[in-house]
């Protein structure tokens, strides 16, 4: 069976895209799945969050998309976490310019990942916080849909509205089958009425598409990246850890994948 490929996307920064990619991936791995994290952001936050120095990356997403080095030869495995990473580096920023003149520039990531599809159960792509050519590549590669992290804040709906327009343009021009797999509510503050209101509004706009698992605002989640590990290794008993475990189980159940006993 080929991997399910999901892209984390939201053009707003600071909404929990990388946090969701890393921690969802870590718990899918804990639940017995073979997981690849693809860092598609030149800031390389997912790479750093897994303890890899982005300046030391010799081969990664950039080289794979420009057909310099196959993705298979650029993978970094972390046996302790059960995760594999296709890392990013600052060089990826140059891909925007270099790909503009290239043929099939929108499908480079999709093509680069095809040889890996039989090796993994899940491939999670972490996009940059912009609607750039890199993000378009991430959307076109999202065979099984996009996962949209949305922060529980006042301007959340405005940002999601812009994103939905972009997804519609991609459907019309490049990938008619592009779908939303689900919306993940992040940075929820249980004491704030606003957080509850935002969740309610998002659920109205995306009926049956908002995950039940809600990620709280958490100091532990914010601290984990500085140690180069996901929350599952840093603070497995924290509320943030419990939320991402619940999200992983919900995703697998919805995908028809049996949970381990």
Uncertain residue segments: none
Q: Give the biggest sheet.
A: 7 strands, mixed
CATH architecture: 3-Layer(aba) Sandwich
* Count of separate structural domains: 1
Envelope shape: globular
| Oligomerization category of the chains in this entry | single chain
Distance between the termini: 21 Å
Number of strands: 7
Name the average pLDDT: 93
Count every helix, treating DSSP H or I runs of 4 or more residues as helices: 11
| Helicity level | 25-40%
CATH H-level name... which superfamily? P-loop containing nucleotide triphosphate hydrolases
Question: What can you tell me about this protein's structure?
Answer:
The protein has 261 residues and is of the alpha/beta class. The protein has a single domain (4-254), classed as P-loop containing nucleotide triphosphate hydrolases (Rossmann fold), CATH 3.40.50. It is 38% helix and 13% strand. Strands 3-4-2-5-1-6-7 form a seven-stranded mixed beta sheet. Helix 1 crosses helix 11. The model has no long low-confidence stretch (mean pLDDT 93).
Briefly say what this structure is.
This protein is of the alpha/beta class and 261 residues long. Helix content is 38%, strand content 13%. The chain has a seven-stranded mixed beta sheet.
């Amino acid at each position: 069976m080929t991997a399910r490929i999901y892209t984390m996307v939201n053009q707003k920064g600071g909404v929990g895209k990388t946090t969701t990619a890393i921690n969802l991936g870590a718990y899918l791995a804990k639940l017995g799945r073979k997981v690849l994290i693809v860092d598609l952001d030149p800031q390389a936050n997912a790479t750093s969050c897994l303890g890899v120095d982005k300046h030391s990356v010799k081969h990664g997403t950039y080289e794979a998309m420009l057909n310099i080095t196959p993705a298979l030869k650029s993978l970094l495995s972390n046996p302790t976490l059960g995760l594999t990473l296709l890392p990013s580096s600052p060089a990826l920023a140059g891909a925007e310019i270099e790909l503009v003149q290239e043929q099939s520039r929108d499908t480079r990531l999709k093509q680069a990942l095809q040889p890996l599809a039989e090796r993994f159960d899940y491939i999670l792509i972490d996009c940059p916080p912009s609607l750039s050519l890199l993000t378009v590549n991430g959307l076109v590669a999202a065979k099984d849909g996009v996962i949209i992290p949305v922060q529980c804040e006042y301007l959340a709906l405005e940002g999601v509205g812009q994103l939905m327009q972009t997804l519609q343009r991609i459907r019309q021009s490049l990938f008619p089958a592009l779908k939303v797999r689900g919306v993940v509510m992040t940075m929820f503050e249980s004491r704030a009425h606003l957080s509850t209101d935002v969740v309610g509004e998002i659920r109205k706009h995306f009926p049956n598409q908002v995950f039940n698992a809600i990620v709280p605002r958490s100091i532990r989640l914010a601290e984990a990246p500085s140690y180069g590990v996901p929350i599952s290794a840093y603070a497995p008993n924290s509320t943030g850890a419990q939320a991402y475990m619940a999200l992983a189980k919900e995703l697998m159940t919805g995908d028809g994948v049996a949970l381990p006993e």
